[in-house]
Amino acid sequence: MSRLALLPLFFLFFLHGCDAQSQPLPHSEKLSAEKVEAIAQRINDRYPDLSGKLRKQILATVVRSLDNMVFIEGGEFEMGDFGTLCQYDPANMGTWPYGQEPERLCPITPERHDDYLHQVRLSSYYLSRYQTRLEDFDLFRTSLGLALFDADLREREDLQELFHPDKPAWTESWQEAKDYCLWVRELSSYPVDLPSEAQWEYAARNRGQYVQYPTDTGSLDYGRNIPADKITDELPIAQFAATPLGLYDMAGNATDWVNDWYAENYYQVSPLENPKGPNMGTQKVRRGSNYQETMWMSANTVRRWNDDLNRSRHLPGTSFRCSLQSDTPL
């Protein structure tokens, strides 16, 4: 074959190889065009065998993940169950300590190993405005060469809403949540990770205020700032009013995995500065509440869930949001 005949083939190969680089970069609210381009290059290097379409989707997901990060100014607060009125109206909580002496208040969550109040001082950090979407979690699994979970069920017309792409990601294990955040970390070159338990509570309480419910008002307004108790399934993210810090779904739809190992007595030995939980354990911590619970009882800012690392399958109601472990602007 002549050199002239080979030129068209070479040209087509060149175009295919440059496909990802020739695609327009997504706009970012926080990142410069140069930073977005660097992320795109890391994705191309990491996934040379994926299609240009998939790499473009991954790029958009990583950039959006960083754009969704809310800066949380650090500070000191009293972590744990700070108490509530023994009889109260969840729709009209008022201001703590509600005209009472704090020691006369009743526990918010009895028998949840959160009663030991202790001082915590946190550095500034970022927390995702939203829980991770099912669509983004699916893309993460696809990038690893894993099949979509419940792929056969997703084909059923009557179950389409169950697997809505904007619902919180379903997890089968804590490790999946951890790995997703580390995936964003690897591709973005930013210190993305699961938040610590202290970071989650500090943010849910509007930088450590004595707020019982993580809503825009600190009270429950069913259908406006939290799902109604009659809801029987997860809802797409951000259907209700955000907290004063701009965080959505801190309770009521799905719980959030956090980084910490669980120990009953950890609050009694927790260090003051940036506690990260025990060094080891057999269970991890979840925070928040999910759609299966009675909101006035469970959707508070202080309750701790201890849960096994693995479950039998992917299930709704247990999700996660990533954090950015940095006190400097993006």
Automatic annotation (TrEMBL):
Q: What superkingdom does the record give?
A: Bacteria
KW DNA-binding (keyword) present:
no
Q: Does this entry carry the keyword Lyase?
A: no
Listed A to Z, the keywords are:
Signal
Instruction: Kindly indicate where the leader peptide sits in this chain.
Output: 1-20
Q: Give start and end of each Sulfatase-modifying factor enzyme-like domain.
A: 66-306
Protein name as catalogued: Sulfatase-modifying factor enzyme-like domain-containing protein
